[in-house]
Amino acid sequence: MSVVHVPEFRLGKVLATSFTATLTERCGEPVERIPVPSRLVDWLAVYGLVVDSCTESQLVHARELRESIHAAATAVAKQEPLPAPAVQVINDCSAHGQASPILTPEGGWRWRLGSASVEDALSVIAADAVSIIAGERPGKMALCASPTCRAAFFDASRGHTRRWCEMNTCGNREKKERFLANKRKKSNPAG
Ligand SMILES: [Zn+2]
How many domains is the chain built from? Predict the structure, then answer.
């Protein structure tokens, strides 16, 4: 029996940039974390966006939105003009779905998707991207300091001093590499 390796999700607090983190190591050896439609369905469910099904073409569409959000967020982080094609895709996705925030009897809230379709779910993600890219929320777009990652992330920390998209992965790896480099320098002072 062969075991198919499915990469785990990188789950963050901000919906739009957590979605872009379904592809990691963009500048190294990219890891696709939604390789098949069922994994997109799983990912959406984690964020309370429960859809009935997902086709291969809906997955392609979702990835197109993902890369458009990443391109636009990267431009904001670099203080460059927004790429027009990315803006178009984000706006189309935002407009082509139905979703409403609704109160639960317990006083919380959740999304109600109009037709439980992938398009409905993508409209929620696109709207979230609009709000962070347009600077509507307290925080700042930044790029991960890891040279193989360079993921765009939303830094909501006080003083906006976050350097890595995720401390547990990119942050720790860089710390480890720096530690090893220092150790090499010490053990080989001539080199
Ligand atoms: Zn990173």
Answer: 1
CATH number for the domain harbouring residue 131: 1.10.3300.10
Q: How far is the CA of 102 from the centre of ligand 1 (A)?
A: 34
Range of the domain at 136: 15-141
User: 168 CA distance to ligand 1 centroid (A)?
Assistant: 10
Render pLDDT for 9-64 as a digit per residue (tens, 0 to 9).
999 999 999 999 999 999 999 999 999 999 999 999 999 999 999 999 999 999 99
Angle between helices 56-77 and 118-133 (to 10 degrees): 0
Instruction: Give the pair of three-digit tokens for residue 84.
Output: 């027009």
Residue 119 domain-assigned (yes or no): yes
pTM (2 d.p.): 0.90
In a domain, 40, yes or no: yes
3-state secondary structure of 166: coil
Beta bridge partners of 103: 109
Q: If we measure between CA atoms, which residue out of 70, 67, 33 comes closest to residue 152? A: 70
| Dist. CA 139 → ligand 1 center (Å) | 18
